[in-house]
Design goal:
Helix 5 packs antiparallel against helix 8 (240-276) and helix 10 (322-347) packs antiparallel against helix 11. This protein is an alpha+beta fold. It has three domains: 7-120, Acyl-CoA dehydrogenase/oxidase, N-terminal domain (Butyryl-Coa Dehydrogenase, subunit A, domain 1, Orthogonal Bundle), CATH 1.10.540.10; 125-238, Butyryl-CoA Dehydrogenase, subunit A, domain 2, CATH 2.40.110.10; 242-386, Butyryl-CoA Dehydrogenase, subunit A, domain 3, CATH 1.20.140. The chain is built from twelve helices and ten strands. Bound molecules: flavin-adenine dinucleotide.
Length: 393
């Protein structure tokens, strides 16, 4: 395959037109806008509207359903650029990474019903309910149950850390349809549902915000005999865990692109400040104790970026990319944190002043080492699935 056939392998600034358009949109949403939201833990309605109207949020929706049908790498570039300008895609990125489950496993009727409306912004698919308070990373032990009763399912249970649930119309929900002790393989018996939360709220669905270190609009979600129509089920009953796993590589690549964008923002901000701030009669960036951590973060960001481009190219070619997507996620989340630390240290006390936006971005980028998947779980993937060492769970 040549780079002409697969733009994901182009080096340098690929998709320059998309990058430029995203930068233009983001210019209307400066750091003060994000600080204002942060103080009130508010949702960036105007930003999400601008991105939706530009068509960027529908990048992965096929053209036949009103989207622009772009490859994964293009979506990754959109998210990277949003973060590199100092904005945050956390308010709306779930639409991109949950899309694959609906596209690959949804019925024609489900796709016709939802995709055009998601693309136009009439409906938001921004909530993804996987994590539960008791089972945590051990997803197959999730306790939320969906029991078939005639033409509907009855859902009982609880999710935690469900981002954006109060700002989304639809939720992709993972629930057990066959109890854990009644399945042969622990990953069997879990199903995926597309829940219309507009009808459910107050009728068996309760959502409570969680006050958190970052403004991710995180919530706790409670299901108490919630009745959902049987046609909310995506694909076949009991195969949901596999459907979600199918989408994991895409999710890793997309989220890591945000970390790359953050790293670029930190490095650029730190390098500029280091060149301008004068102490002891010279720019602080002349001191290698300041200069080298920024330079080192840059080298790490570039290495992570290269791994992610490889992952996206393999994904586009329909080839296995688990190793590259996982390694790319680990490298990108660590590169962005390294860059955040260098930027914070370079700013000294001013790094703590909210008007410099460093502390907010620093808090935000820490998340990538924990969600959507924590570093240890990535290392266990590499140890067990890539290097063939014994399984620990
Ligand atoms: C701001 C925010 C937004 C989020 N949004 C969503 C969302 O929209 N939807 C959703 O479903 N979830 C969401 N999450 C949840 C997130 O995906 C989980 O927090 C994350 O996967 C870790 O799970 P846990 O918190 O239950 O940690 P635990 O599973 O309790 O793990 C705690 C620590 O122990 C480590 N650990 C656990 N088991 C092992 C092991 N066998 N070997 C080595 N180390 C281990 C983990 O790596 C982790 O560091 C969000 C979280 C946050 C903080």
């Amino acid at each position: 395959m040549t780079t002409m056939e697969n733009p994901s392998m182009e080096l340098g600034e690929d998709y320059p037109d998309i990058r430029e358009s995203v930068r233009r949109i983001c210019a209307d949403f400066p750091g003060e806008y994000w600080n204002g939201l942060d103080e009130k833990l508010a949702y960036p309605e105007e930003f999400v509207r601008a991105l939706t109207e530009s068509g960027f949020l529908g990048a992965l929706i096929p053209e036949e359903y009103g989207g622009s049908g772009m490859p994964l790498r293009a979506a990754a570039v959109i998210l990277e650029e949003i973060h590199a300008t100092g904005c945050n895609a956390g308010a709306c990125h779930a639409q991109m990474y949950t899309m694959g489950t609906l596209l690959r496993h949804g019925s024609q009727e489900q796709k016709q019903k939802y995709l055009p409306k998601i693309g136009s912004g009439e409906l938001r698919l921004q909530a993804f309910g996987v994590t539960e308070p008791t089972s945590g990373t051990d997803t197959t032990k999730l306790k939320t149950r969906a029991e078939r009763q005639g033409d509907h399912y009855v859902v009982n249970g609880q999710k935690v850390w469900t981002s954006r649930a109060l700002h989304s119309d639809l939720m992709l929900l993972l629930a057990r349809t066959t109890p854990y002790d009644a399945v042969e393989k622990k990953s069997d018996g879990i199903s995926v549902f597309l829940v219309d939360m507009r009808e459910a709220l107050g009728n068996g669905l309760e959502i409570r915000p969680i006050k958190a270190m970052v403004n991710h609009n995180a919530t706790e979600v409670f299901f108490d005999n919630l009745k959902i129509p049987a046609d909310s089920l995506i694909g076949e009953e009991g195969k949901g865990f596999r459907y979600i796993l199918d989408g994991m590589n895409a999710e890793r690549i997309l989220v890591s692109s945000e970390a790359i964008g953050d790293a670029r923002w930190f490095i650029e901000t730190a390098a500029r400040y280091a060149s301008e701030r004068t102490v002891f009669g010279r720019p602080i960036g002349m001191n290698q104790g300041i200069q080298f951590p920024i330079a080192r973060a840059y080298t790490q960001m570039k290495a992570a970026d290269l791994m992610l481009r490889k992952a996206a190219a393999l994904f586009a070619a329909g080839l296995p990319c688990g190793e590259e997507a996982n390694i790319g996620k680990l490298l990108a989340s660590e590169a962005s944190w390294m860059a955040a630390e260098a930027c914070m240290q370079t700013h000294g006390g001013f790094g703590f002043a909210t008007e410099y936006h460093v502390e907010r971005k620093w808090r935000e980028t820490r998340l990538f080492q924990i969600a959507p998947i924590s570093t240890n779980l990535i290392l266990s993937y590499v140890g067990q699935h890539v290097l063939g060492m014994p399984r620990s769970f």
